[in-house]
Amino acid sequence: MEEIGRSLLEAREQLGLSLEEAERATRIRVHHLEAIERGEMEAFPTPVQARGFLHNYAEFLGLDANAILLQYAEALQSRRSRLLPETSHKEPGAGPSVRIRSRRPRWLSSDLFFAMMIVLVILAVFIWGGSRVVAMLNQRAETPEAALGLLIPTSTATVTETPLQSSLVSDSTLVPATEETPIPTQPLFLGIADKVNLTIVVKKSAWLKVVVDGDEAFQGRVKEGDVFEFQGDQIVELTTGNGAGIHVFYNGQDHGILGEVGQVVIRLWTLGGALTPTATITRTPTETPRISNTPNPTATPPSTPGG
């Protein structure tokens, strides 16, 4: 790990770049860059983030990113092999030996006993969950309208028509008055933080747009393996055309994949947590019918003979 960090440090110094300049170009925080150059890859939350930062930093410095990642994988494998305990093989004795541990039958072994206990616990959980589901279905069947009201929040619009008539004006106009009931937005996560820190790990190629505190921070195509970090004071808005290709970490917490393949997803993160924007109701104007005048009948005088 130290050798990888030393090679990256030497490449940056040969280019005459500071850590702050590298941060602005790669969008990787200075403390993360310092950890990479020290070879402290375990400072990152997950190996996925470590590989993504290492790939982006190596490409920025003009190094072979694939070779660096291969060297990192070999170092990681060697470190894991050193941590594994060494198995000791006991040599058989010169003479035969008989060891009798227990007289109980083999079918009553401890492994079988624990397996039976686990199966019983799983069955109990399934029975309890099934009873809860049946109870909920029965309750919804008794009150279907109340259940639908709880599951599907709807907005109610009240339209009141008020005719305006005048004895001097032949036309009358109907003016509809519309009252809208807003739909409350349910937050996906509640938390307390001083900043909005968002780490994006690209799983599949996608189009991505990020707006931080009202300013556009990034827009364009991203590819698998890219890692981005964004920090806002109030809000970070993310828009993508492929929800299955974007993995988000918010303030160190894994928020998972945003959606399905090809799904357009819009998410917002604030100091309080994640929000899903709610569509607004657009009123459609309608043509007001006009009332036409009715002609008054005219009396015709009768004709007089000899007149």
If you had to describe this structure to a student in words, what would you say it looks like?
The chain is of the alpha+beta class. Among the domains are: 2-80, lambda repressor-like DNA-binding domains (434 Repressor (Amino-terminal Domain)); 196-275, Immunoglobulin-like, CATH 2.60.40. Helices cover 34% and strands 22% of the residues. The protein has 7 helices and 11 strands. Helix 1 crosses helix 3.
What number is the mean pLDDT?
75
Strands ordered across the widest β-sheet: 5-4-7-10-11
- What is the H/E string? HHHHHHHEEEEEEEEEEE
Major beta sheet summary? 5 strands, antiparallel
Query: What is the CA-based Rg, rounded?
Result: 36 Å
In CATH, the architecture of the domain at 196-275 is Sandwich
Query: Roughly how much helix do the residues carry, as a percent range?
Result: 25-40%
What is the topology?
Elements: H1 2-15, H2 19-26, H3 30-38, H4 47-60, H5 65-83, H6 110-142, H7 144-151, E1 157-164, E2 173-180, E3 196-202, E4 206-212, E5 215-222, E6 227-232, E7 235-240, E8 246-250, E9 253-257, E10 265-270, E11 273-275
Antiparallel strand pairs: 1-2, 3-6, 3-8, 4-5, 4-7, 7-10, 8-9, 10-11
Short structural summary:
This protein is α+β, with helices and mostly antiparallel strands and 307 residues long. Helices cover 34% and strands 22% of the residues.
